[in-house]
Amino acid sequence: MYPGSLEFPNSASSAGPRVQVELGDACFSTNGIDDGMDWIAEDQIGSLGLLLGEAIERLVDSHDQEFDKRAAMMTVKTPTLTQSDAGVRFEFQVQGNRQRLQSVVINVHPQFDEDDPGAEAMQLRAECECGCISHQRDLRCPHTLASGWWLQEQMARRRGNGQLIEFLGGLKADAVAAGKQFVDELLRRAKNARPDITDQEPSRLQWRLRINVASQTTPLTITPFEQRQRKGGKGWTKGREVRSFDLLEHNLLTDPLDSQVASLTSIPTHGFREDQFGMFQALRLLAGHENVMWDDQNASPLEVFSSQLTLTLQPIEVDQATKPKPAAAKSKAKSSVKKNTKKKSSRSKSLGELVGNDASNDMGSAARNGDGESATATLTAVDESRETKAASEATPIASPDGPGDAAGDVLAAPPGETIAVQFRPRLSVEGIDIDVHNCEVIFGQTSPVEPVVVLADRQSDRVVVCTLNDSAAIGLVQFLLRDDYRDTMLDEPSAAKLALSAASIDPFIHVSLPPQLAGPVQPTTGELILQMRPRPGAGLKVALRVHDGRFRNDPVPGQPPELVPCLSDQGPVRVQRNLANELTNAQKVIELFGLNKLSSDGDHEWVAVTDHAALDLLSRLHDAGEDAPRIVWPEGETFRVRGEITPKSLRVQIDDSPDWFGVTGSVTIDGVEVPLQDLLLAVREDRQLVRVGDRKFAKISEAFRRRLTQLADTLVAEKGQLKLPSAAVPMAQEVLSDDVVLEATSAWHQAIERLDSLSNWNPDRPDGLDATLRDYQLDGYRWLSRLSRWGVGGVLADDMGLGKTVQTLGILIDRAAEGPALVIAPTSVGENWVREAAKFAPSLRPALYRDCDRDEVIKTAGPGDILIVSYQLMQRDAKRFATRSWSTLVLDEAQFIKNSQTKTSQAIRTLEADWRLGLSGTPLENHLGELWSLFRTLSPGLLGSWQRFRSRFAEPIERHNDAERREALARLVRPFILRRTKDKVLKELPPRTEITLRAELSEAERKLYEDARLAALAELTHAPTDGAKSHEGRRRIQTLSWLTRLRQLACHPALVEPTWKGTSSKLELLLSLVDELRDGDHRALVFSQFVKHLNVVREVLEKRGIPYQYLDGATPSHERQRRVDAFQNGEGDLFLISLKAGGTGLNLTAADYVLHLDPWWNPAVEDQATDRAHRIGQERPVTVYRLVAERTIEEQILQLHADKRELVAGVLDGTDAAARLQTQDLINLIKNEMA
After folding, report:
1. Same domain (yes/no): 330, 434
2. Are 395 and 595 in contact (CB under 8 A)?
3. Buried-most residue among 129, 366, 503, 1124 (CB within 10 A)?
4. C-alpha span between 351 and 496 (Å, rounded)
5. Which residue in 108, 103, 95 sits closest to 59, CA to CA?
6. d(Cα 76, Cα 746) in Å, to the nearest integer?
């Protein structure tokens, strides 16, 4: 497209043939994806003004009247018009009285059927955008209304299409001028956004700490100071205090860490509690910061660390000759041991001897092993014989506190001296050499559940922040810091007692024991468990933990300590955990059971807020059996499963309304009544458990679950009430069998009796039907008769050519006395209905609506009358048809209403009819929404609302290939759809052979094709993919446009390149095939989606003198029938037919060959076209040729045909999957990546 032109894409594409209208220096062009698109033709450009006007009118009508008064007072500036790939865009500036200027955008783009790239329906859609609050709330506002009015007024002033085109051309924006303005404005804003700091000296933030142990409200204060660099870069100024709100203004927060600290310390401090949370969080962030000082007169530098408090037991050797001193070096101890082995072996004591009998008993009651038995152990902290034995018999285990064996620190005394070991309990800080007892100490919290201890060492100018695991730890730390315990020493029995109880202290303060007391290292035998506790009111608290019977407390998976002090029969041990393994296994459990979908409540802790969430989790764990972690409940607080719910416990009550039955019910377990709605909700959410009291649940039996699922598929929940559509009574009756206690009204029992009688209703062919029915046709008539007597709608979905019309005429004769029938059918088959009725049902009086006095024929229609109208005329005159009721409504080619949002579908739903019937060989083509739309019209309520149908059927089947849901849908619709295929019921029909002929593109054709394919990939790769609806729609239009272009190039380059003068490989293949067919005295139907392609074929046939007939969407109805009759009577060897225009409603059995020049997306459309020849009345075998260009998009389309054919079987027969092509799937076609 050249500069200054304006494109307007048609339907689902922005490629294809273009119609251009001059706009002065610019032009206005339309293009479409299909030559067969009616409104795109050059002589129909006049429809542009009408379509644009209708789009703006619909936009204006969508505004509430409350906007009218304000919109009328607004000033609208002349907009600019710009073009995008998806349509055109009007950009307005609108201003109200004393209001700010608002920018308004009105986008106008084609509305297309995203599931059918060849959709014929064409209309424009206008959408508006505005930044005001009203628009954000209501998606409409006075500004958008005023803009719409302005466009309406300007278009109304333009008389004729020429003036409208001139008007639009005048609005088109000058892109170059706008670009210059854009760059200038962008640079201006960027300059203003950054302050001018060229004259400013470099500065930085310094943080100063004040710790006041005596203060109860503000024990910790952190203040920011600004320092400037001295001239010549020689150091920094002392600094000045900066108020929190000045930090941004002075551009000081250039460091992310400073920004975080500033945000935490800027909260005004009025008291401790929440006001101080931020201060302690900030202090922890300052650990390692290079510019932290004391807030004193000299601003003394200090270091901030973050670490963990540890209780250590320091071994001290004590003898009679010296004062206590630290234990001897390991090498010295070892040599002493060797010299005094015999002497010292007599000093070995049992654990009971070390701690004393009373202490041992006390300790035994406080420390139990995993089985609840008293633990005994021997602790020979100073027995050198233990080391000798360990060295000779045991495998050495490295101590976590340093190298060497477990007894490496055993003390020994020189000959003649008596030596003992005592232990000094001290608080220390891991990794930092600091005397905790000489520090100033303040306690705080970084959150309500995370306490901290701050240690300030003034002598070494260091501050340490220690985070505690639990609030209870504060009391322990305060106890350990008491001055009267500062010089405390523990003798061996006391140290042993503390060692055995270290596991109870470790959750609060880490306890580090020397090897003499810690015991040997043993591997863990732990498992993952789920600790559950019911929440008050509803839901559960859930924690994932590691359980080993020796643990005092079950630790968090993957969290220290790696060595857990525990008890064993032999004494203290350290259990070795594999933290990495625990984390890996925990993550598997979290993902498998959906714990990450619950609300997080801490490290490996979650909350199932509602009973529904709790039951969902419990059901998944219950179903997993031994694969699930063990569940641990607090004593007396477990959830209990109280029995099993079976159909015998269900009581159901049914009342009646005109079009549906109301259903209520319940089961009673342990005296608690559970509503039927709760049971249905449980099966919908795939839960096995339902609540039957406080912390009590019951399991739904598997057989009952299946029946409840079927019942849930038929019931519709509306305003808290369960409704059963009349059409769904048979399915409900199957579920509510004899083992369910049922209380129902007489209307229900009458419905059941009527259904029972219908099961044996097999009427003979009606007397007024002058046709000999085949067996399957008689079965079809009887099926229709049963539906008619029942009063529910259905779909006769037989293959094309099996006589759906004659079967329908039989039921119309039966119902003739009840009133007039209305038949809505495509224009092309209207006359066929008149002929078939006159031939097979002479007692009926058919009339074509288009040939009658329209008001009169509707008003006077009575019993025995059949009024036949096209879908287009019915939509236009919908109000006229809705003025009366009809005995029978027949929708021929019912797939015309596959989109429930079209005006045609909406119009048909306004009609009042006693009974409705749909006829369609393809009731399901692309996706399940088509089936829902069909039944929304034919049997309202059967499939419920679209939201319900989508969640219960469409999404599980189409997205997740859910076989159970697919079978459930098939079971639900099976009574209302009768589908027979020709290969099953029409054994006498001649065989049909399908052959694919492949054409190899010439070198020139291949170059054109590959150039276009690569250009498509380049454009689509750079298209926005952020998921925005507007971008996705635009990207889909671009994709479909390129696909159409590639398909046309695969047919004949002249369809895309007007300058192409040569032939094409596919055309040459066709001509050779035509010559062969004519030599064999065969006649053929030739189908193409592209009218321009048929025109290329016509030119060649005329040059060669080959006789043919021709039909496309522009052929008038009477001329269509004349040409069909001429071909049937032998005029023409070929019949060239547009696929969309001639794919239905024609009987062309004079041909025994069918040639498809280009494959269509959906094979059902091609099959319909083929059935013009392969139908009742055909006496010769039919051969179908598909002409496909090798290594092109056409081969990819053929691969999709199998999926599309399986779609019908997937739902109607319940044997395979249904899916729809997404935009990325279409792009993959271009990439040749489709499998």
Report:
1. yes
2. no
3. 1124
4. 8
5. 108
6. 66
What is the distance between the terminal CA atoms of the chain, rounded to a whole angstrom?
A: 35
Choose between 319 and 106: higher pLDDT. Answer: 106
Look at residues 846, 908, 909, 911 and name the one whose alpha carbon lies nearest to residue 884. 911
* Alpha carbons 967 and 1212: distance in angstroms, whole number: 9
Domain that holds residue 1030: 992-1231
Coarse DSSP helix, strand, coil percentages of the chain, rounded to the nearest 5 percent: 40, 25, 35
Cβ neighbors of 975 (< 8 A, separation 6 or more) are 730, 731, 794
Residue 205 phi/psi, 5-degree rounding, is -95, 140
- Chain centre distance of CA 67: 36
Q: Identify the residue whose tokens are 């972690």.
A: 629
Residue 462, amino acid:
R
**Does 871 share its domain with 900?**
yes
What CATH number does the domain containing 832 carry? 3.40.50.10810
Q: Which residues contact 19 (CB under 8 A, 6 or more apart)?
A: 29, 30, 31, 40, 41, 42, 45
Q: Are residues 859 and 973 in the same domain?
A: yes
Report the amino acid identity of residue 1023.
A
Does residue 667 share a domain with residue 619?
A: no
Does residue 591 sit within a domain? yes
Neighbouring C-beta atoms of residue 56, cutoff 10 Å: 23
Domain end position, chosen among 969, 985, 1001: 985
Per-residue pLDDT at 118 exceeds 70: no
Nearest by Cα to 54 from 99, 116, 111, 100:
111
| Same structural domain, 999 and 979 | no
C-beta of residue 63 within 8 angstroms of C-beta of residue 40: no
Q: Are 171 and 150 in contact (CB under 8 A)?
A: no
* Cα gap 689→685, rounded to integer Å: 11
By C-alpha distance, which of 1124, 1118, 1114, 1121 is closest to 850?
Answer: 1118
pLDDT in tens, 221-277: 999 998 888 887 788 998 888 876 666 555 677 788 888 888 888 765 544 455 578
Q: CA–CA separation, 17 vs 31, rounded Å?
A: 5
* Residue 686 within any structural domain of the chain: yes
Residue 1086: CATH number of its domain? 3.40.50.300
Domain stop point among 715, 733, 756: 756
Domain count, the chain: 7
What pLDDT is attached to residue 831? 85
Contact 581, 533 (CB under 8 A): no
Q: Tokens 């079971």 — which residue? A: 971
Stretch among 543-552, 746-755, 1093-1102, 1127-1136 having the lowest mean pLDDT? 746-755
d(CA 620, CA 163): 69
Q: Is residue 448 part of a domain?
A: no
Task: Say if residue 87 is in the same domain as residue 119.
Answer: yes
**Closest CA relative to residue 558, chosen from 511, 604, 506, 507:** 604
User: pLDDT tens for residues 863-886?
Assistant: 999 999 998 888 889 999 999 999
Global confidence as pTM: 0.47
Question: How far, in Å, CA of 465 to CA of 452, rounded?
Answer: 7
Between helix 1163-1170 and helix 1193-1208 the angle, nearest 10°, is 80
Which amino acid makes up residue 86?
A: A
- Detail the DSSP E strand segments found in 96-215: 102-111, 123-130, 203-211
In a domain, 447, yes or no: no
Pairing between β-strand 80-84 and β-strand 75-76 as defined by DSSP bridges: unpaired
Rounded Cα distance, 500 and 364, in Å? 9
The answer on 433 and 318 residing in a single domain is: yes
Q: Which neighbouring-strand residues pair with 698?
A: 690
pLDDT in tens, 484-538: 878 888 888 888 888 877 777 877 888 888 877 878 888 988 899 999 888 776 7
Contact (CB, 8 A) for 283 and 304: yes
Cα separation, 331 vs 317, whole angstroms: 15
> Same structural domain for residues 351 and 413?
yes
CA atoms within 13 A on the CB side of 155: 18
Run of H or E including 1064 = none
